[in-house]
Each structure stands twice: as C-alpha cells, then as structure tokens.
Amino acid sequence: MNQPAPFFLDCDTGIDDALALAYLLASPRADLVGIGTVSGNIDAAGGARNTLDLLQLAGYPDIPVAIGAHDPQEGTFHGGAPHVHGDNGIGGVELAPSDRGPVEVSAAELLVQLAHRFPGELRVVAIGPLTNIAEALRLEPQLTELVAEITIMGGAALAPGNITPVSEANIANDPEAAAEVLAADWNVTLVPLDVTMTNVLEENHRQELLASEHPVSQALGEMLGYYFGFYIDIFGRACSAMHDPLAAAIAVRGVEVATAPKVRVQVDTTTGPSRGQTVCDLRGQYLGFPDQRGARCRVVLEIGEKFAPHLLGTLQAAWLSEEQVAEPVT
Ligand code: BDR
Ligand code: CA
Question: Domain of 123: which CATH number?
Fold first, then answer.
C-alpha cells in the first residue's frame, strides 16, 4: 500500500471511534473518502454531529458524512452507552459545532456510491454495529466484489464479551446485521476483544495527547479522561482498551498482525444466552491454524508490536508536518 488507499469508515462516534477517525486522517496510508454513522455508543444523528465537529477541528471540511440506521434490524435503539462514552458520546467534551451538516444520502447509499467510484479499491472499516453495512449489501449485491476488503471491530473469539458473557457491543447491538455481513463472500478481517482488550492506552499516553499543541490531540486526551473512568473498574487502573483505533491501524497495515487465522465465523442470532456471540472455529490452533475449507474471515488474535506508540507516533507525525507548513510566527 504505497499510495494512500480510499477508505470508508462506518462508526458510532464514540470516544474510541474519535481516536480511530483521527488515526485514519493522520495515516499517510489512508485517504478517507466517506463516513457513515450508525446508532451504537450514541444515536446515528449524534454520532454524525460528533464526526462533523471532529473533522472541522482537524481541518478536513470536505469528507462527506452520512447518517445511517437509527435502529437495528430487530427492535429499537437502546439509547447508547453514556456510562462509557458520556451523554454526548465524546466524554462531555464540547467541540465547536461544524459549519456543515451531513449529506442527503444514507450511510448505506454513500458506501454503495463510493464502492462504484473506487471499484476494487475501496476499503471499509466498520467500528460500530453492522446495520449500515448489511443494508448496503442488500442495496448493492455486487458490493462484495466492488469492495477490496472490510475490517470490522467486533466480536469475541476466545475472550469474554463486554455486553454479555459472550457478546461484544458492536455485534450484540445488531446480531442479525452482523450475521449477514460475516456470511457475505468478501475479504473480511475481524478485530475482536481478544486483541483490543490486551492493547491499552495508559495515563502517560493520555498526558502526551493533552500536552500536544494540536487541538484534536488535546480533545482526544480530554475525552480519554472520561473513558479511563469507565475502564478503572475493569483494569483496576486509569487506562483504556483501544478497540476502534486498533481496527483502523490493522486495516491500513499500520501494525503487523502476529496471529490471525482465516476461520469460519458464525454469529448467534438466537434469543438465548449466547445471542450475539461470534462463534469462531479455532479448533486448528494446535496445528498452527491450517487452511479451513470455506473459511473467509481472518480473526486477529494477536499483533506483533505495541500499539500505543504507533498510534501516538502517527498522530504526532501528521500534526507535526502540518505545523511545518504553517505560517511562521513573527
Ligand atoms: C466497541 O463498542 C463500542 O463501545 C466501541 O466504540 C467499540 O467499537 C467495543 O466493544
Ligand atoms: Ca465504535
């Protein structure tokens, strides 16, 4: 990936979604050409507002943002996760409101349009419930061929869930959509809790963001204060998981994966206690995961390097180069 590849981000912005967005803007390997929002951490309209405000703060006024599904395929939106992400989805941090609004089309329609504009090239990063992606598959049955690959933050392979003992939030929020997306015949990578809960951001990393001169890094540092507050009860110290930015970094090949077998994955859509579970067939682990017939989903279980330094380094490098072209101070 020498030239930046076109990327579509589908998100529920969200504190870690905000980090993923900043990472994709900063990465020299990604050209973010469109963003869709879906209800998850906050409702789809609120997620779009947060996304637009962040884009304005970062100086990207042209990337289209489309509001997607408010409700999952079955039932209605549950109201978000204010205890994790704050009432406004970004830890109560107040950003200057964007001068522009979302585009007229839905997130699914925008994805289909962009897949046609960049056939065989577009890469999708999905870091919220998969409702929009499933809708796009129904709108355009050729989507699986038009899209080069899709990377999904979601699920729990061997790790415990974070919503129920076995289900992770993005899958639990719309298991039917997740089942559809993971059953489709495309190049899919799943970044589950197994790897996102073991790569954390610590307080010294947050302090580094706060000390930055760039307003986006500062805002992210402030948001993380709220996120760390939630994770104290989970990790026993001020730090947080890095779900969404890790998925973004894996999608742009910014970090190497160490263990990522291609295996069969099914989503439980029953109404019993395992609803929303991603059932990953990892029985090949004792043989080093030989090819599995009919398997198309790469499940990332381990990465080969520390993630936090890569994340901070990528943000700093981008913001530094911006400073270099800024007007000299007189
Ligand atoms: C996922 O759920 C959301 O709360 C996060 O933004 C992330 O996408 C983690 O389970
Ligand atoms: Ca998310």
Answer: 3.90.245.10
Domain that residue 78 falls in: 5-321
**Torsional class of 225: left (φ above 0), alpha (ψ -120 to 50), beta (otherwise):** alpha
pLDDT tens track for 235-249: 999 999 999 999 999
288-300 pLDDT, tens digit per residue, is 999 888 899 999 9
247: in domain: yes
- The pLDDT, as a whole number, for residue 294 is 86
In short, whether 242's Cβ falls inside 6 Å of ligand 1 is no
Measured distance CA(134)–CA(57) in Å, rounded: 31
Q: Which of 214, 243, 244, 268 is catalytic?
A: 243
The answer to the question of residue 329 being in a domain is no
Candidates 17, 38, 234: which one to mutate for ligand 1, based on the most atoms within 8 Å of Cβ? 17
In a domain, 216, yes or no: yes
**pLDDT at position 1:** 58
Q: Is 168 in the pocket of ligand 1 (CB under 6 A)?
A: yes
Number of domains the chain contains: 1
Q: Is 17 close to ligand 1, i.e. is its CB under 6 Å away?
A: yes
Helices (H), the chain: 15-26, 44-58, 82-85, 107-117, 131-139, 143-146, 169-172, 175-183, 193-196, 203-211, 215-235, 243-251, 307-325
In a domain, residue 330? The reply is: no
Q: Determine the distance from the C-alpha atom of residue 46 to the mean position of all C-alpha atoms in its chain, rounded to a whole number.
A: 16
For the Cβ of 174 lying below 6 angstroms from any atom of ligand 1, the answer is no
Known catalytic residue at 243: yes
Give the whole-angstrom CA distance, residue 284 versus residue 291. 9
